[in-house]
Every structure is written in C-alpha cells, then in structure tokens.
Amino acid sequence: MQITSFKQYEEDYKKSVENPEQFWGEVAQNFQWRKPWFKVLSWNFNEPNIKWFEGAKLNITENCLDRHLATNGDKPAIVWEPNNPEEESVTYTYKMLHERVCRFANVLKRNGAKKGDRICIYMPMVPELAIAVLACARIGAVHSVIFGGFSAKSIADRINDSQCKVVITADGSYRGNKQIPLKDVIDDALIGCPTVEKCIVLTHIRTPVSMLKGRDVWWEDEVKHVNDICEAEEMDAEDMLFILYTSGSTGKPKGVVHTCGGYMVYAGYTFSNVFNYQPGEVYFCTADIGWITGHSYIVYGPLSQGATSVLFEGIPTYPTPSRFWDIVEKHKVNTLYTAPTAIRSLMSYGEDPLNGKDLSSIRVLGSVGEPINEEAWHWFDEKIGHGKAPIVDTWWQTETGGIMISPIATVTPTKPSFATLPLPGIQPILVDENGNEIEGNGVMGNLCIKFPWPGMLRTTYGDHERCKQTYFSTYENLYFTGDGCLRDEDGYYRITGRVDDVLNVSGHRIGTAEVENAINMHAGVVESAVVGYPHDVKGQGIYAFVIYPEMHGEAELSKKDILQTVTRVIGAIAKPDKILFVSGLPKTRSGKIMRRILRKIAEGDTTNLGDTSTLLDPGVVEEIIAAAKKL
Ligand code: WTA
C-alpha cells in the first residue's frame, strides 16, 4: 500500500482513475474486515448518494487496536506530553490502549449508550480523549467531538442538532498558564439539552465541579465497576462513525458525517503514504482532536497503521517558545505535522528558542489548515528540517476526511507554498464561475473534485438537502470545495484560499455569517458585516463593521462588550480582531452588502474600490474609509 517511487505514484494514480474500484479494493485489503464487500463503490453526486465497500462489516477499533496486539502489543501507541513539562509524560502501548478502550466502552454501555447513539465529547488533549473516541467506535456509538474553545451555547446547539444521549467531559483543562473549567461550560450547555441522560466527568485539573445526582458520574469511579473485555460491535461499512461540526458560508455549523469503512481506509492509506511512515517511528501531529486533523491524523490514521502518535496537551509557546522543539528532542520525533499559524508564531521569536535543541530525529515535516506562505515554508524547511526533511503541504477539509492534494514524503517533489499533486484516487478539476472546466496549466479557478473517494462526507447530519446544496449543487456532478486554486505550468496545485464567506483564522474555519449573527445578538447592535483581512500570524484576522447607534458608554468599552457577546455565543476563537463602528454599510439597491468593498477597506487598500455607482448611498464608503484610517 505504500508508494516508494515517483514512477509508482504515476502508475497508481493512473490506475486509480482508470479503474478506481480495483484500486481501492486492493488498498482496502490492507485492513481487517469481518465480512468482505460485494461492491466497492456505487455513487451519484446529484442526490448525493455515495457508498463504499457495500456489504462489508468491520469495526475500526479492531483495525486500530486488536490487530496490532499479537505483533506490536508492547509498542507505544500514544505518547502523551502534558501541558506542564515538569509533569511526567505517559506512554500507552497498544495493549494498554486496547485495555483502556474496552474498559471505557463498558462504562459507556453501563451508562445506557448503545450502537447508533450520539455521544458528545468535550475534553482536554489527554489520552482519555482518544480513549473516549475509540470507546464510542468500539460500541458503534457515533461520536461528536467539540473543540474545547467553543462556548456553552455552541455546545448546546451541536448536542441538540444530533440529539446526543451522553456527554463525556473533564473537570477542566490546562492551556499554557490558564485553566479552563470545561465542566462548568458543559453545565451551562446542558440546561438546554433535554436529550442528554448522562455526563461522564474525568478528573484532570481537580477543580471543584457540580455533580448532578442521576446525571453526572465520575470517570474514575465508573471504570472500577466494569471489566476490560468488550467485543467490538460489528458495523456496516456505511454505518455512521462520527459527526464533526464545521462552519460554512451560511447559518449555523453543519454536522459533517463520516462512515466506518471508507473513512478508515482513506485515513489509513493517506497517513501511511503522505508521511511515508516507517515502523518504529515517532509521529507528532500538533492539532487538537476537536478538529478533523486530530481525528484522522492523531487517532484513526496513525493507530490503524500501528504508529506511535504523540498527543500534546499544551500550546507551542508554553512555558517557552521552545516547547515544540523540546518535545521533538525528548521523544525523538521523526515526523512533525503542524499548522502555518504555529510556524509563523514561532518564527516571530527568532532563532533563540532553537539554540541547543537537537532536531536531528526529524525526517518529515507537514503543514495543514491554511495556505503556507513562502517565508514560513522556508523557515520550516531550513530551521526545523535543516533542508533535509521534505515538507508535505497537505490540502484537505473536514468534509474530505483525509488528505487530498499533497506531496508524498520522499516520493514526490515539494514546492514552496504548493500542495502540489493529487493523491491517487483524487480527481481535482478547476472550474470557472459557470462551472465550465478550465483545462491546461497556468490557470486559476474554483477547485472541485469530480469523482468520489472513500473518505468523503456522506451527508450532513439530519439535513441531507443541506449537504446537497452546499457541496453538490453549485456545479453539476462535482463536489465543490469552496476553495480557489491555481494550477501552475507544471500542473502543481496551489490553494489560494476560500472563495465563499468562510474565514480561516489560525487554521480554524469560521463563517462570517456566524460571527455576524453573534455580533447582532448584542443588545443595541443594528447590523454588522464581517470580513477577513491578512494577519501576520493568524493568516486571516476578523474585521467587523458594526452599526451600534446608541452605544452603551465609551466606544472601547462597547467593543469589549461585543467581544464578550461573541465569546458567549460562539467561543473565544471567533472574537473579531478589529471592530469599526459605522453609521451605515455599503449596500446595493437590493439591500445586499457589498463585501468586496469592505474587504478592500479591511486590507487597507482603498485605491481601487471598483464600481460603487450601484450603491444605495455611495457616501457611506467615504465615511467608512475615513473611520478605518483612524482605527
Ligand atoms: C484550508 C482542515 C491551503 C482550505 C484539514 C480548506 C488549506 C479549509 C490547506 C478546510 C492547505 C486546509 N493549503 N489551504 N494545505 N489545508 N486548507 O475543514 O481553505 O478545518 O477548505 O480542514 O482549510 O478546513 P478544515
């Protein structure tokens, strides 16, 4: 299954396009199935209706755990590095992880969870988070992990959307020198969540928490009441594995649904290939399990391949900006997979944090989540990889389940700021506004995928029509990514960023409409418009234009009030970086906000605003420009 030469990449790619069923059928042989499929693929993009490995039965945890026990049971599966470097790191071998997962799976059963139930997980980056995820998969329950930075309201919306029966959380989490009271947030959320029957609470920071009789139970107590034998539930390849909520250009976040068989094959195949993972190596992905990168490339991908995956609780700058390099040195990390925003942030501290750090174990570097600028690419290459470690710039999305366009480490070439070539099985095309294919090289367009791959989303939870509208209706018979893309003279792909109203702030996907809704919930705010602007560290910053005629007190205080409201409604990750109070917004006669103009103003480029004659009140633009200059 592992590609070892460029020639093989070309051959595999060709085969995957000419005979996709044979290609993926062969890849899938590298996994363990209880029962084989009768059909590799049936699909249409109109409904959409996509089925991979139809009829096959499996449990993903047997692939991630059981099958490694005989030969690799004592090999480290997860190496946990705590927030505080003075604390001991913890290693879970495959045998230990298997035991913990089975035990916790029994805890879930004991608390009424069964196959098909939805379970919300809101936890710090501790091994128990991975254990909770895998325990859900073990019993066939559907996990919905929510990133620790989301507010009670966001959690409640997500829990209610998928009607979760159980919540798994912890008393709190550490983030650098801060403590975050997770159970408190969950308590606020659960006031409005009638479907939740049980809440399992892990003790982590041992902060006081309220425990409601009948609903709340302690993780540590529960595991004492069960044994560690738990036969894996037999799942259909197309049974739901998890839901992960993600932002789009409109309205509330949607629950992207991934299923068992295809997702497993795709996460495992891409992990093994893109990082060129070799047995015995230590792999460190710095993402949070609350995002898709953590699902696919901390948990499922690496474990399905018997890899050693480092799980880090903290942040890159705590206690010092050397932390990543300390971890690399301490655990002899061979592959470091991180985000451009982290690289840029660490770059800003200069070379001191690197002094004396032994990074010689590094063999492969990876980047994910947003376009990586050339400066960051070269710094990563020279300072961290010492020019010897290929950088895989991996383009993909929550919806794609796994990496789609990326170099294959040591096999295909890299090129600064380019995701380069599609992986086998992936058929990207560029289209113009009208959906016509743009052929040839040296062209730009909207990035679509024209053929299914095993890791793709199947639906959006509870609202299939939304899935169809969002991804399959913009262009007929194509999956639309929402990204703009360049294909250069060599046929290499470079993702240029979102073409819809989705922002990418520090690699976090945030819909402008969501932030606007949150700002508009602030008493007294009449209207707002949110756009992105280039930000040195975050990639994109959030710029909000707000109409707030009868402001409560001073402008600076009012801004803080608005930030507080956004924090309550979505979470701190969606706080605008800049707020500009305005008396009006540039609108067309039909009432549409002309974001193009606001984007230019936010970028500080007001030389060429284009045609403003269609505006209802062109004067408002001058006023906004003048105000923006003073901000
Ligand atoms: C962006 C993260 C450029 C892109 C895995 C995509 C990237 C969105 C890259 C998905 C990359 C991700 N180069 N842009 N290597 N990787 N993106 O769902 O805009 O959190 O649509 O998945 O991030 O974000 P998501």
Automatic annotation (TrEMBL):
UniProt GO BP: acetyl-CoA biosynthetic process from acetate
Record domain AMP-dependent synthetase/ligase: where: 66-452
Source superkingdom: Bacteria
InterPro entries with a match to the protein in the record: Ac_CoA_lig, ACAS_N, AMP-bd_C, AMP-bd_C_sf, AMP-binding_CS, AMP-dep_synth/lig_dom, ANL_N_sf
Residue ranges of domain Acetyl-coenzyme A synthetase N-terminal in the record: 9-64
Keywords tagged on the record: Acetylation, ATP-binding, Ligase, Nucleotide-binding
AMP-binding enzyme C-terminal domain ranges (all copies): 514-592
GO MF term set: acetate-CoA ligase activity; AMP binding; ATP binding
Protein name from the UniProt record: Acetate--CoA ligase
